[in-house]
Task: inverse folding
C-alpha cells in the first residue's frame, strides 16, 4: 500500500522537529531564577562569613564568574583571572588600597582597566546586575581572601559607599 | 461514490472543527470573565503571590479602580501563550515580507528577458501571499490582545513610549493591504511597469512596517532614550537603539532565506503531486529558484549575526556574555546542529541537481572532498567548550573543558569553521553552475587559476587567523573575525564576477532537463524549510529570552510568575509545538492556494423525475 503524500510529508515534519527537540534535551538543563537580594541584616557578620556570601554572589546574582576565572593558568582569557588578586590590588593603582581598588573596579570599572583587556565591565551597583552596597562589601571580602585575608565588615566604608542601597529598577507605571 | 463520501466527511469535519474552536474559545474566556476581580491583588506584588487574598465583594461600590499588572493564561501560562502567538505571527509576517521581495525580482527578470516562465513563477509565488497576509494580520491582532490582557501595565508603558509610531504603523498596514491585493489581483491587468510599481510599493511598505515593529522589540532588549527609571527622554533615541539596525538587516536577510525555503517546500509539494512531466519540470524549477533564494540569503546571514552580536556587546557586556557565555551558551550548540544540517541538506540538493544535466559529470568527483570539508566544519562548530561529564571525568580532564577538544569550543575555532562552511557551500554552487558547460573564452585557463587562487587565499586567511586567535589577547582576538568575514565575502563576490565573464557563451556539453531529479530531493527541500523555521523559532527565543527577568533590559523589571529563564529543553519543546502549528497552518495556505487551479464544480444534470442515488438506496 502506498502511503499518501500528505502523511509522508507530515511524518517528515514531525520527525525533523522531534529530532531537534531531542537535541534540545541533550544539552545541560538549567532553569535560571531571577536574583533575590541577599539578606545582610546582621551587622556583626564576620569577614569570613561575608567572604562565603561574596563567593555565592559572584557565582549567582553578580554574574562575575561568567567572565572572570579563578585559578585558570592556560588558554585564552576573556577577562583577568582572579587568583591572588588581593596581592595585585594593594599596589595596582597608586593611592588606593585593596578595598578602595576593588570598590573602584565595581562601581567605576572603566577608571582603571587591566592592560590587554577591553574596558567592558559594567558598573555592578546599577541595573541590570544592581548589587547593593552591602553585597558589594561581601564580594570585596571574598576578593581579599584570594591571595590575602578578608578584613572588611558591614561597617567598612569606602569612597563609593554612601550607605544607601543600589539604584532600584523601575516598574511599569 | 468516494467523492461523495469525502465531501460528507469534509462537511462533518468542518462542523466538528467549528464546535471544538467555539468550545475552546468559551473555555479560555470563562475564567477571565468570572475571575477578573481576582487579578488586581496579584498586580500589587507579583513576586509575593496574594491570589489567596479574599475576593472583594462584587457589590462593593466603593472599590477603587486598580489596573492589573499581570493576568494568567490558563494551562500553559502567560509567557508560553504570548511566545507561541508572537512566534506564529512572526513566521507568517516573515513569509509575507519575503515573498514579495523575490516575486518582484523574478517579475523584473521576466520583464527584462521577455521569458513568460518567470512571470508565471512570480505569480505562483504571489498566490501564496493572499491567505498568508490574512493569517499574519489575525495573529498580529491576537498578539496585541494577548499583550493587553496578560501584561496590561507593561503594554501600556510600551505604547506610551512609542505612541508616535502607532498611527504610521496602521497607515502603512492599510497601504500594505492595498498594494498586496492590487499586485495579486491586478496580475496581467496593468502595463507591466505599473504592475512592477505596485510590487515595489508593496516591498517598501512591508519593510516600513517591519522597521517600526523592530523598534519596539529592540527597545526592550537594548533600551535608549529613557531615564534609569523608564521616563521617556527621546522617542528618536528609543527607536534608534543599539540593536535596531542590526536586527532590521538581519531580519530582512533571514526573512528572504525563510520565505525562499517555504516557497521551495511548496514547489516540492506540488512536484510530488504532479502527474505530468511538464508540471514536474515547472515545479522542479520553482523549487530550485526558491532554494537558490534561500541559500543565497543564508550565506551572508552569519555576518549579519556577527554585527548584531557585536552591537549587543557594545550595548551591554553583561547581555552579550549572558548570550554567549551564560545561560544561553548551550543554545548555540543546538543552533550549530541546525545550521550544520542546513548546509549539508543544501549541498546535497545541489549535488542531486547535477543529475538534471545530460552527459558525463566530471565535476561530481569533487563532491566527496566537499562532503568531508562540510562534515569536519560541522563537527568543529558543534563541539562545546565545556563537556557534560561525571565528577571523576571532570577530575581526569582537569576541568569541564576537554584537554584537546576544548580548544575547538572557543570562538576562534567556530568562526573559522563557519567561514569555511560558507566557502565550501559556495564552491558546491559553482560546481553545480558549471555542470554541462565548458568555458570557451580564450582566457579560460587563467580565469580558472585566478578563481582557485582567490579561493585558496581566502581559505588560508580564515584558517591562519583562526589559529592566530589562540596566541593573542582577548582585545586582539575579537577583532580577527572581521578580516575573516571580509576575505570570505571578497572571495564570493570576486569569484562570482570572474565566473559570469568566464562562462559567457560557454560551450554546452549537456542540456538541463528540469524535472529529472530524484524524488528524495523534494523531501530535502521540505526538510530545509522545517529546519529554517525551527531555527527562526530558536533564535527568536534567544533574542527575546536574553532579557531574562526584565521586560525592558535594565529598566523595567519583570515581576510576573514567569520572571525566570526556562531550561533549554522546555524552550525547544515550545519551539517545536509552534513549528508544527505553523506547518499545519501553512498546509492550509497551500491547500487554499491550490483551489485556484481546480476545475469549477459542475453539478451533474439529472433527468427530470430521477431520484438521488442515496434516496434510492434508502
Result:
Amino acid at each position: 500500500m502506498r502511503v499518501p503524500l500528505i502523511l509522508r510529508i507530515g511524518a517528515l515534519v514531525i520527525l525533523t522537529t522531534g529530532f531537534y527537540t531531542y537535541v534540545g534535551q541533550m544539552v545541560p538543563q538549567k532553569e535560571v531564577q531571577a536574583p533575590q537580594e541577599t539578606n545582610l541584616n546582621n551587622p556583626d557578620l564576620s569577614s569570613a562569613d561575608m567572604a562565603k556570601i561574596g563567593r555565592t554572589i559572584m557565582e549567582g546574582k553578580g554574574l562575575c564568574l561568567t567572565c572572570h576565572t579563578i585559578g585558570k593558568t592556560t588558554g585564552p582569557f576573556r577577562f583577568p583571572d582572579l587568583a591572588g588578586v588581593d596581592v595585585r590590588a594593594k599596589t595596582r593603582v597608586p593611592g588606593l588600597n585593596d578595598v578602595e581598588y576593588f570598590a573602584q573596579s565595581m562601581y567605576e570599572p572603566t577608571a582603571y582597566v587591566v592592560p590587554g583587556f577591553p574596558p567592558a565591565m559594567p558598573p555592578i551597583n546599577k541595573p541590570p546586575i544592581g548589587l547593593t552596597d552591602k553585597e558589594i562589601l561581601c564580594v570585596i571580602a571574598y576578593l581579599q581572601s584570594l591571595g590575602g585575608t578578608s578584613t572588611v565588615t558591614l561597617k567598612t566604608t569606602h569612597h563609593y559607599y554612601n550607605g544607601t542601597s543600589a539604584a532600584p529598577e523601575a516598574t511599569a507605571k | 461514490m468516494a467523492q461523495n463520501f469525502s465531501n460528507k466527511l469534509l462537511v462533518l469535519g468542518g462542523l466538528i472543527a467549528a464546535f471544538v474552536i467555539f468550545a475552546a474559545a468559551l473555555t479560555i474566556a470563562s475564567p477571565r470573565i468570572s475571575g477578573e476581580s481576582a487579578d488586581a491583588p496579584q498586580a500589587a506584588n507579583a513576586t509575593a503571590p496574594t491570589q489567596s487574598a479574599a475576593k472583594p465583594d462584587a457589590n462593593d461600590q466603593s472599590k477603587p479602580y486598580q489596573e492589573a499588572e499581570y493576568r494568567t493564561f490558563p494551562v500553559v501560562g502567560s509567557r508560553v501563550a504570548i511566545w507561541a502567538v508572537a512566534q506564529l505571527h512572526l513566521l507568517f509576517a516573515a513569509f509575507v515580507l519575503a515573498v514579495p521581495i523575490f516575486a518582484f525580482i523574478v517579475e523584473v527578470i521576466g520583464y527584462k528577458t521577455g521569458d513568460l516562465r518567470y512571470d508565471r513563477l512570480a505569480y505562483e509565488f504571489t498566490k501564496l501571499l493572499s491567505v498568508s497576509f490574512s493569517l499574519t494580520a489575525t495573529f498580529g491582532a491576537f498578539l496585541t490582545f494577548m499583550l493587553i490582557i496578560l501584561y496590561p501595565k507593561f503594554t501600556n508603558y510600551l505604547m506610551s513610549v512609542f505612541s508616535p509610531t502607532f498611527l504610521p504603523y496602521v497607515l502603512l498596514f492599510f497601504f500594505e493591504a492595498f498594494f498586496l491585493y492590487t499586485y495579486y489581483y491586478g496580475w496581467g491587468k496593468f502595463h507591466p511597469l505599473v504592475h512592477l510599481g505596485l510590487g515595489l510599493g508593496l516591498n517598501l511598505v512591508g519593510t516600513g512596517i517591519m522597521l517600526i515593529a523592530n523598534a519596539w522589540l529592540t527597545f526592550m532588549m537594548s533600551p535608549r532614550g529613557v531615564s534609569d527609571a523608564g521616563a521617556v527622554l527621546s522617542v528618536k533615541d528609543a527607536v534608534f537603539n543599539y540593536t535596531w539596525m542590526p536586527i532590521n538587516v538581519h531580519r530582512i536577510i533571514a526573512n528572504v532565506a525563510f520565505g525562499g525555503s517555504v516557497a521551495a517546500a511548496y514547489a516540492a509539494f506540488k512536484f510530488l503531486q504532479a502527474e505530468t512531466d511538464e508540471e514536474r519540470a515547472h515545479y522542479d524549477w520553482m523549487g530550485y529558484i526558491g532554494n537558490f533564494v534561500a541559500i543565497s540569503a543564508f550565506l551572508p546571514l552569519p555576518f549579519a549575526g556577527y554585527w548584531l552580536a557585536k552591537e549587543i556587546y557594545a550595548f551591554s557586556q553583561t547581555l552579550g556574555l549572558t548570550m554567549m557565555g551564560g545561560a544561553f551558551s548551550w543554545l548555540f550548540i543546538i543552533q550549530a546542529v541546525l545550521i550544520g544540517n542546513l548546509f549539508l541538506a543544501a549541498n546535497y540538493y545541489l549535488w542531486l541537481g547535477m543529475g538534471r544535466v545530460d552527459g558525463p559529470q566530471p565535476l561530481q568527483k569533487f563532491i566527496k572532498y566537499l562532503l568531508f570539508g562540510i562534515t569536519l566544519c560541522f563537527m568543529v562548530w558543534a563541539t562545546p567548550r565545556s563537556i557534560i561529564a561525571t565528577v571523576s571525568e571532570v577530575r581526569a580532564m582537569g576541568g569541564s573543558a576537554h584537554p584537546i577538544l576544548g580548544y575547538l569550543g572557543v570562538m576562534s575555532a567556530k568562526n573559522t569553521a563557519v567561514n569555511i562552511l560558507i566557502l565550501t557551500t559556495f564552491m558546491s554552487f559553482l560546481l553545480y553552475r558549471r555542470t554541462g558547460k565548458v568555458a570557451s573564452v580564450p582566457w579560460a585557463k587563467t580565469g580558472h587559476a585566478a578563481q582557485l587562487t582567490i579561493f585558496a587565499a581566502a581559505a588560508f586567511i580564515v584558517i591562519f587567523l583562526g589559529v592566530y586567535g589562540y596566541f593573542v589577547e582577548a582585545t586582539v582576538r575579537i577583532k580577527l573575525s572581521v578580516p575573516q568575514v571580509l576575505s570570505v565575502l571578497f572571495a564570493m563576490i570576486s569569484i562570482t564576477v570572474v565566473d559570469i565573464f568566464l562562462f559567457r557563451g560557454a560551450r554546452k556539453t549537456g542540456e538541463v532537463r528540469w524535472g529529472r531529479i530524484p524524488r528524495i530531493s523534494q523531501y530535502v527541500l521540505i526538510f530545509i524549510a522545517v529546519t529554517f523555521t525551527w531555527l527562526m523559532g530558536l533564535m527568536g527565543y534567544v533574542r527575546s529570552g536574553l532579557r531574562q527577568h526584565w521586560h525592558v533590559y535594565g529598566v523595567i523589571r519583570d515581576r510576573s510568575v514567569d520572571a525566570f529563564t526556562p531550561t533549554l529543553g522546555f524552550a525547544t519543546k515550545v519551539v517545536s509545538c509552534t513549528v508544527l502549528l505553523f506547518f499545519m497552518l501553512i498546509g492550509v495556505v497551500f491547500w487554499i492556494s491550490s483551489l485556484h487551479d481546480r476545475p469549477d464544480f459542475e453539478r451533474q444534470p439529472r433527468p427530470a423525475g430521477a431520484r438521488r442515488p442515496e434516496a434510492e438506496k434508502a
